[in-house]
Design goal:
The protein is an alpha/beta fold. The protein has a single domain, classed as Rossmann fold (3-Layer(aba) Sandwich), CATH 3.40.50.1820. The protein is 24% helix and 22% strand. A hairpin with a 2-residue loop joins strand 4 and strand 5. The chain starts with 11 loop residues before the first strand and ends with a helix.
Length: 343
């Protein structure tokens, strides 16, 4: 998982030293992309702003505070420079890994989601997980069996993320039929939980390096699910269990569900009748899809042979770790899946 494994170098979580990582450049990449896009369109560049309680979210980077169940958390939102004013935009929630925070997920060198939002024309929101620290660092999500403080305190992250969607919808033209969630590691597990507990809101979810951690999953309707995972993940192991690079305190995580079992659960939940069909086969990666599911949804799996516990296609990973797989781009696969799910 994040640090659980996405944390800052030298910080401690209880008696455990968290592994090193470089502090994110927050929305610096977003600002640069916005300036370039605005210049190309002949528009003035807009600096990131702290959104007012009822303010409209124009193009650029914004920081919101969302209150739920007595807690206020930061949500970073990027609105692309070019949107079709006549058509509400899709909304993607991007959930950081355990031990990370919202700003970490905005780093385009590690995830590329701001860049993808600009290219594809969707609004992307980066909510912060639950943290006991004032700046929201070392945050986790309550995905069911994992992880950390959010799980231990029974935090209502489903309710919080519903509130995030509602607040963004109030301030930007969002298509209610094209609301999606994706996440890394513990954030990917939280995406699975949203598919279980908020299928009425989320049209499709995509989990990267994080498997199903729910105990009781009863989606209100069929929901499209994509899993992306490396065969050699040493945190959330492909065949199940916590790997040697997962958090040192095993009580803060869980005996992770395997990728095959995660896919089998969603095939059953969505009542898919067709056998898996290979849709991509290239050196270092393959994808397969289950069709014939209730509601016309699909269940898809993409596997990379290398890359470990990282976001496929990322430019940068944590120091000392194996580079991300170059066999496919997680962002391209995810966005193609989301677009197909909304047709």
């Amino acid at each position: 998982m994040g640090c659980l494994p996405e944390a800052s170098r030298g910080r401690r979580c209880g008696p455990h030293v968290l592994r090193a990582c470089t502090a994110p450049r927050a929305f610096a990449t977003a600002r640069a992309l916005l300036a370039l896009a605005a210049a190309a369109a002949g528009l003035p560049a807009s600096a990131p702003a702290q959104a007012q309680a009822t303010g409209h979210l124009g193009p650029g980077a914004h920081a919101l505070q969302v209150e739920h169940a007595g807690h206020s958390r930061r949500v970073l939102v990027h609105v692309p420079a070019r949107l079709d004013a006549a058509r509400p935009a899709p909304l993607v929630l991007a959930l950081h890994g355990g031990g990370g925070h919202a700003e970490f997920m905005t780093d385009d060198a590690r995830y590329g989601l701001v860049r993808k939002a600009e290219a594809a024309g969707f609004v992307v929101a980066f909510p912060n997980g639950f943290s006991r620290f004032p700046r929201g660092r070392l945050a986790t999500w309550n995905a069911g069996g994992c992880c950390g403080l959010a799980r231990d305190r029974g935090v209502d992250d489903v309710g919080f993320l519903r509130a995030v969607v509602a607040q963004v919808q109030q301030r930007a033209a969002v298509d209610a039929k094209r609301v999606f969630a994706t996440g890394m590691s513990n954030g990917g597990m939280m995406s699975h939980r949203l598919a279980c507990d908020a299928a009425d809101l989320f049209r499709a979810v995509a989990a990267v390096a994080g498997t199903d951690a729910t105990f009781d999953c009863r989606p209100a309707r069929p929901v499209a699910v994509l899993q992306i995972h490396a065969r050699n993940d040493t945190h959330v192991r492909f065949e199940g269990g916590a790997g040697p690079d997962a958090f040192r305190d095993s009580t803060k995580v869980m005996d992770f569900v395997s990728v095959p079992e995660t896919m089998a659960r969603w095939v059953r939940r969505n009542r898919c009748t067709e056998p898996p069909r290979r849709t991509l086969q290239r050196e270092g990666a393959w994808c397969e899809v289950h069709a014939g599911c209730a509601g016309g949804v699909t269940v898809q799996l993409c596997v990379t042979e290398d890359g470990g516990h990282s976001w496929p296609g990322a430019d940068t990973v944590r120091r000392g770790k194996e580079g991300a797989s170059r066999a496919l781009s997680a962002n391209d696969v995810i966005w193609e899946f989301f677009e197909a799910s909304a047709r």
